[in-house]
Every structure is written in C-alpha cells, then in structure tokens.
Amino acid sequence: QEDDRATMQPKPPPNYLAGYPPELAAQVRRLIEQDRLADWLMQKYPVAHNVRTDRALYDYAQEIKEDHLHNAGQLSKVLFDSKLHVIRNALGTHTSISRVQGAKLKSKREIRVAMVFREMPPEFLRMIVVHELAHLREREHDKAFYQLCRHMEPDYHQLEFDLRAYLSYLAANGNRLWGTGQGIDETRAAL
Predict the structure, then answer these.
(1) DSSP code of residue 49
(2) Bridge partners of residue 108, in order along the sequence
(3) How distant, in Å, are the alpha carbons of 7, 29, 99, 133, 138 from that of 104?
(4) pLDDT in tens, 7-54
(5) Which of 61-75, 91-105, 148-162 has the lowest mean pLDDT?
(6) If residue 101 lies in a helix (H) or strand (E), which one and from where to where?
(7) To bridge 138 with a disulfide, which of 33, 57, 71, 145 should be the other Cys (CB 3.0-4.6 Å)?
(8) Residue 15's pLDDT is what?
C-alpha cells in the first residue's frame, strides 16, 4: 500500500534554478517567500511586448534571424503553442525536417514558443526566440551554442536567469505579472 501512495503523490514543480549556484537559488526563493520578487521583476521589466499573433511572431523571429543568421535557411513556421510545455516540458522547440521531393531535398524548419510568452516582457520573448534560432546552427547546448545566443542577445544569460526566477515565482503560485490572456493556465498545469 505504501508503494501505491508514493506513486499518487503530486509531482514537485520543476526546479527552474537547477544548475545555478545554491546561494543564488536561495536568494530567489527568499524574495518569493518575502513577496518581493514580483515587484523587482515589474521594476526591471515594466511592460509586456505587443507580439500577439503567430504571424507577428514569425515576422519578429525572421527579423532577428536576418540580422544574425543570414544563411541559416528559411523558417517555415513560427508560432505560439498552447500545448508545448505540457507535452514536452519545454518553453520553446525547434524542428528541422528534410524530405526528398523528386531530385530535390526540401528542408522545413519550425519554431514553437510556449503560449506563456505571449504576454511577457519583450526581453523574455527575445531570449526564447534567440535560443530557438541558435538551434538552427548549433544543435547542442554547448559553448558554441551559448556564444551564438550571446552574439544575438548580449544579455542572454541575465534574461534567462530572470525568466527562470519568474517561472519559479509562478510555480510557487505567484500571480501572472504581465497580461491577462491565455498562457498561464497551461503553464501552471505543466508546473
């Protein structure tokens, strides 16, 4: 019977700060417990971006790609995905599919961004789009990958940390800080 109860326990939320120094993660947890993290984030990132549609997201990603990855191949699709993190426990994905059509090799590249990014600061949206675009050139999360991310967004590491702090805040049942539409319910379901 104990084994049955153990399997029925709710899964703990993801540790979004895993890999960071323990003191830094503890500092974020203290700010959450003291109800100060939300104010800090709102001071640093006061407004949400205005990229609301899949078409606008495609144009946004294409603009960054043209500025930094001229010859990385055409993007077929870029969209907000409401099921992404529930299914894959990810905030963004990239896919590349190659097919032979006659004598030609056709390549299709897609980027999907979690719906929660529809109503976040422009800096967080840029960070996740840069991350997924970097995968067009670098498959693995290695040194070359992060160098490319920093090339496209010099504050990449700080933005990633701040985003992870925000996700930790949401996982601790914090209220959404930007926007009022879809996104957070799916995120909380994944948390």
Answers:
(1) -
(2) 97
(3) 51, 53, 8, 25, 24
(4) 556 556 678 898 899 999 999 999 999 999 999 999 999 999 999 999
(5) 91-105
(6) strand 92-101
(7) 145
(8) 85
